[in-house]
Design a protein that fits this description.
222 residues; mainly alpha; three-stranded antiparallel sheet; 3 strands
């Protein structure tokens, strides 16, 4: 009688392992294998594919949630902006390093990304880490949160500025790779409640729906 649950559990594990065989992962592992061997011979490529399949079966990974459509113009803007960030950040790190009269004040910043794409999370984390002066120390896939170690974040304004830069980078990545953009829009500002004005003729003020407003009790009345 105990054989039925065991068989069902084995089938579930086998099914999850088969779902873990992802062509994109196998292709990436094959490229890494070929790069490690340093040649592109057919035997090396086939061996890389076999190694990729074995790795996916032994260590099944969850499927990445991606909805991509590359936009060349936005991709070019992302690349140019990233190169500019490298130059500016490098100059800032050099300037901070040469200031011997003070100790840089570093910080660890938590940034909750607005999109729910694993691909965007990975690209943003990699690009932030490649820029001098910032490093991703942890990335949480469950909440799409990045924890950054930032060099010389002097005060709260510096922290907010770095967080704004990460949000701007996230937006450029999303626009470059065609992911959903509705999460990037800021929430609408709350509308102020209508305020009634005291009529000049001495009549009672009214509510927004037109009904007369009840008199407010005076201070000190029973």
């Amino acid at each position: 009688m105990s054989g039925t649950p065991t068989t069902g559990r084995d089938e579930a594990m086998r099914s999850s392992r088969l779902r873990g065989v992802q062509p994109s992962v196998i292709g990436w592992l094959t490229l890494v294998w070929v790069a490690l061997w340093g040649n592109v011979r057919p035997f090396t490529i086939v061996a890389g594919v076999v190694v990729g399949i074995v790795v996916c079966l032994v260590f099944p990974m969850p499927r990445l949630r991606m909805n991509l459509h590359v936009r060349p113009l936005w991709l070019g803007w992302l690349t140019l902006h990233f190169l500019a960030d490298l130059v500016v950040a490098s100059a800032q790190v050099v300037r901070t390093t040469l200031q011997f009269h003070r100790q840089p004040r570093n910080a660890v910043i938590e940034v909750d990304l607005r999109t729910h794409s694993d691909f965007v999370l990975t690209v943003v984390a990699e690009m932030v880490s490649l820029v001098p002066g910032s490093l991703v120390v942890e990335a949480r896939r469950s909440t799409h949160t990045l924890f950054l170690h930032v060099l010389d974040a002097k005060d709260q304004a510096g922290v907010d500025r770095m967080r704004a830069q990460v949000f701007a980078l996230e937006r450029r990545v999303v626009l470059a790779f065609g992911a959903e953009t509705e999460h990037l829009e800021p929430p609408p500002a709350p509308q102020p409640e209508p305020r009634s004005e005291q009529p000049k003729d001495g009549s009672r003020p009214t509510e927004p729906n037109g009904d007369p407003r009840p008199d407010q009790p005076k201070e000190g009345s029973a």
